[in-house]
């Protein structure tokens, strides 16, 4: 894989990010925030709501849940790749980001914001670790959003409850979906490295996702 060329950048938390990479991460974060806000509010019917003052809150919730879930998923891939001495940078797929927003207006969402491209020699184990990092972070984020949901219930705050529920649901779903062993998804790389590890992570993610969505708390996500 060719080395990414993103120009001079900045160091954040010990990681070097090029200006192009930071721009792509920002664009993906905003596009997915808008796309999921539209999707959760019912597609094209959401336009009037998004153009009203409440639209700021709706987009803000999506940026803090779906946007952060995708953003940290990709950054996790980069962190582990750099740990294994890879040259690694995120590149947004602007065509797919446009598709995500347009599909949301039609009542469904297809989100493939881009990928972390890396270069260097890797063992199957290292490839597996890099692939697993994204879903693992999503599982961790789902746990972090759980107290937000509890606080929302305790304070009877609809906004906080929705924020917590969507944070849990989106991250659980992303973990399970990305662990499907098909095509470019992370699961194909993980299962190629270690089948028992893949099976354990996929089953936990899938069962947790289904259980949460069928629960009363899951209803707040939609």
Describe, in short, the structure shown.
The protein is mainly α.
Summarize the helices and strands and which ones pair or pack:
Elements: E1 9-12, E2 15-18, H1 19-40, H2 47-50, H3 54-83, E3 87-92, H4 94-105, E4 114-119, H5 124-155, H6 158-178, H7 186-193, H8 195-214
Antiparallel strand pairs: 1-2, 3-4
Helix pairs in contact: 1-3, 1-4, 3-5, 3-6, 5-6, 5-7, 6-8, 7-8
Describe the structure.
- The protein is mainly alpha-helical.
- It is built from eight helices and four strands; from the N terminus they run E-E-H-H-H-E-H-E-H-H-H-H.
- The protein has helices at 19-40, 47-50, 54-83, 94-105, 124-155, 158-178, 186-193, 195-214, and strands at residues 9-12, 15-18, 87-92, 114-119.
- The chain has a two-stranded antiparallel sheet with strand order 1-2. A two-stranded antiparallel sheet has the order 3-4.
- A hairpin with a 2-residue loop joins strand 1 (9-12) and strand 2.
- The longest helix is centred in the middle third of the chain and has 32 residues, at 124-155.
- The radius of gyration is 18 Å and the shape is globular.
- The model has no long low-confidence stretch (mean pLDDT 89).
Average residue pLDDT: 89
Give the tally of β-strands.
4
Specify the biggest β-sheet.
Answer: 2 strands, antiparallel
The CA-CA distance between the termini, in Å, is: 40 Å
Shape annotation: globular
Total count of helical runs of at least 4 residues: 8
Order of helices and strands: EEHHHEHEHHHH
Which sequence of strands runs across the widest sheet?
1-2
The percent range for strand residues is 5-15%
Q: Oligomeric state of the chains? A: single chain
Stretches with pLDDT under 50, minimum 5 residues: none
């Amino acid at each position: 894989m060719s080395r990414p060329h993103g120009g001079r950048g900045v160091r954040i938390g010990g990681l070097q990010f090029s200006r192009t990479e930071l721009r792509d991460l920002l664009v993906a974060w905003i596009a997915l925030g808008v796309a999921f806000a539209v999707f959760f509010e019912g597609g094209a019917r959401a336009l009037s709501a998004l153009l009203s003052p409440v639209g700021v809150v709706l987009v803000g919730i999506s940026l803090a849940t779906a946007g952060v879930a995708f953003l940290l998923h990709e950054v996790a891939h980069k962190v582990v790749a750099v740990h294994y001495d890879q040259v690694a940078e995120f590149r947004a797929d602007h065509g797919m980001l446009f598709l995500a927003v347009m599909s949301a207006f039609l009542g469904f969402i297809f989100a493939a914001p881009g990928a972390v491209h890396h270069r260097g020699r890797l063992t199957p184990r290292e490839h597996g670790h890099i692939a697993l990092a994204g879903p693992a972070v999503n599982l961790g984020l789902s746990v972090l959003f759980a107290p937000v949901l509890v606080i929302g219930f305790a304070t009877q705050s609809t906004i906080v409850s929705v924020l917590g529920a969507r944070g849990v649901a989106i991250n659980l779903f992303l973990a399970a979906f990305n662990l499907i062993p098909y095509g470019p998804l992370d699961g194909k790389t993980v299962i190629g490295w270690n089948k028992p590890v893949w099976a354990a992570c996929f089953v936990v993610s899938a069962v947790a996702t289904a259980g949460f969505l069928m629960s009363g708390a899951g209803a707040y996500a939609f």
